[in-house]
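Section 5.1 Outputs to date
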Amino acid sequence: MDKLLVVVDMQKDFIDGSLGTTEAVSIVDNVASYIEKCDKDGFDIVFTRDTHGEDYMDTQEGRKLPVIHCIKDTEGWQIDKKLRKYTEDRIIFDKPTFGSVELMNYVVEKDFNEIHLLGLCTDICVISNAMLVKAALPEARVCVVEGCSAGVTPESHNNALNAMKSCQIEIV
């Protein structure tokens, strides 16, 4: 496969849980449709999952973002119910922070020439993973799907999209 779709952190806590937003809720059906389209088009599809332990509040992230979320094996950590069926027989990269080094290593190993990313949050985890992927494969076409991503706020979402454009990541 030469094309990859990365579904970033489409978890309950980011959609309608402790860090949920109306914008996040509004993209779930779009994400499902885009996954189905990419599956039909022969993309490899992987997921990332923000994963924290019970000690989250003692971590640097917990001290800077003191909202308990995505604690491993809790309901809020789970991929959204509407999207869970798409994870069957697919890789899920559990990541303790914004960007996934394992995902970056995977894209290098597989040498994808086109990578699409979507999900939550545009201004934190989507941008972090897009930048890692672009740095790892500078000649690959890296795209972020605007209508299938949402930020902490609409303004921070747009700021992240503009920052990625500056780094030669396409917004589609």
